[in-house]
Design goal:
alpha+beta, 4-stranded antiparallel β-sheet, two-stranded antiparallel ribbon, 8 helices, 8 strands, about 15% strand
């Protein structure tokens, strides 16, 4: 499969591939891999420049250029599951976005206060819980902001970078899930774009990443330098990259 290298070309290609996958009725399809029923027939709904500017103002966030291009072409889909939007909808998911921002902070704070993590850059660990919280707050407020992407996935916002990483955050257990948006989308939606395959072994049938994805994933990871990510790189170094 030829996957476009140019980022804008890739976004439009990705849109076509995923919408085609979702256009197949799962209950009658003979395909090995089919979409879930709730997302059958889904279409991406991009944002306008005006909507993007309003979201930045409303949430006091500056979106990096690579994310703005994602929002214009993809953003989210026109169907929702029983629980939440597929990707966060910056026009309507007010509570979900606010909760996602709070979750990132509170999840990491609890890891610090519960002695699960103390970064070298924090300096000597204070005995007082309040002082530890103050140290963490200063670090968190100075770090590049985390932009909610999908569930507990966040884009590390750095406007000076051409490609910003996406992390999967669960307090101390925080890893890189995509070295950039292109890599992340290929990782997150492997089934939809044909980068998964059904295999059989002694445990039975399972869906696994294809060799093409594994090669692509390895190439992206080998280029990734955690030290180049201000603040967050040190935290991510505790857990490394997602090598799946």
């Amino acid at each position: 499969m030829d996957i476009p290298q140019d980022y804008l070309e890739f976004l439009h290609w990705f849109k076509e591939q995923t919408e085609e996958f979702w256009s197949v009725e799962p209950t009658i399809s003979n395909n090995n891999l089919v979409c879930e029923e709730w997302i059958f027939g889904a279409k991406w709904i991009g944002m306008t420049d005006k909507e993007i500017a309003e979201a930045e103002r409303k949430y006091s966030i500056t979106f990096p250029d690579d994310y703005k291009e994602f929002l214009k072409v993809l953003h989210t889909v026109d169907k929702i599951s029983t629980e939440h939007s597929f990707f966060y909808n910056w026009n309507t998911d007010n509570n979900e976005l606010e909760n996602a921002q709070k979750w990132a902070y509170e999840s990491l704070l609890q890891s610090v206060l519960n002695d699960k993590i103390w970064l070298a850059s924090f300096g000597k660990k204070p005995q007082s819980i309040n002082n530890r919280k103050n140290v963490f707050n200063e670090w968190y407020n100075n770090a590049p902001k985390l932009i909610p992407f999908l569930g507990h996935r966040y884009l590390v916002s750095q406007s000076i970078r051409e490609a910003n990483p996406i992390i999967s955050l669960h307090g101390f257990d925080t890893i890189v899930y995509g070295c950039n948006i292109r890599h992340y989308l290929l990782h997150e939606l492997q089934d939809e774009i044909g980068l998964s395959e059904i295999v059989y072994d002694e445990t039975g049938w399972s869906i696994e990443p294809s060799n093409q994805f594994l090669e692509l994933n390895s190439a992206e990871i080998n280029k990734m330098e955690l030290s180049s990510i201000p603040y967050w790189g040190e935290l991510l170094d505790f857990n490394g990259l997602n090598k799946r």
